[in-house]
Amino acid sequence: MKRILRKAVLPVTAATALAVLPATAALAAPTATAQPCVQKINVVNNGAYVLSWQASTRTGRLSAATENYPVNQSRTIDLTSAGFPEGAEVRPLVKVVAGTQAFGNLYVSYCANGQSATYTATGTTLSPSVTLLG
């Protein structure tokens, strides 16, 4: 009778995987800035309201506000005119007329590169939502 030898197969867990990685890989620093890196932010009003908006940094600095504008229109802020330093992480702060306000769901980084990020504002006056488009 022939005997078949089988090697034991052990499941690889996250702890096992980390144990075999070089120490430098485990200590790698995350990216310091949000993506994408853009010069302009555009907010399209797809909500059932009139809005204005400002660019807001993580530290609370605000750009000048846009004028109020209705549904199916958009406004763009060029961050070079806002006085933010390059690399600042920014998102829109939308203010709904006769309603409340909402921040964009994700930050982008400011880079003087001519690129734009577009957010869409949806929802109602008391429940707005501002989403970065992929």
Question: Summed up, what is this model?
Answer:
The protein has 134 residues and is mainly beta. 8% of the residues lie in helices and 37% in strands.
What does this structure look like?
This protein has a single domain, classed as Domain of unknown function DUF5300 (Immunoglobulin-like, Sandwich). The model is unreliable at 5-32 (pLDDT under 50). It has 134 residues and is mainly β. The radius of gyration is 23 Å and the shape is globular. It has helices at 14-20, 23-26; strands at 37-38, 40-45, 51-57, 74-78, 89-96, 101-103, 108-110, 116-124, 127-132. The strands form two sheets. Strands 1, 3, 5, 6 and 7 form a five-stranded mixed sheet that branches. The protein has a four-stranded mixed sheet with strand order 4-2-8-9, with no helix packed on it.
Q: What is the CATH topology descriptor?
A: Immunoglobulin-like
The CATH first-level class comes to Mainly Beta
- Bin the helical content: under 10%
Please state the CA-atom Rg, rounded to the nearest Å. Answer: 23 Å
List strands and helices in order, with pairings.
Layout: H1 14-20, H2 23-26, E1 37-38, E2 40-45, E3 51-57, E4 74-78, E5 89-96, E6 101-103, E7 108-110, E8 116-124, E9 127-132
Parallel strand pairs: 1-7, 2-8
Antiparallel strand pairs: 2-4, 3-5, 5-6, 5-7, 8-9
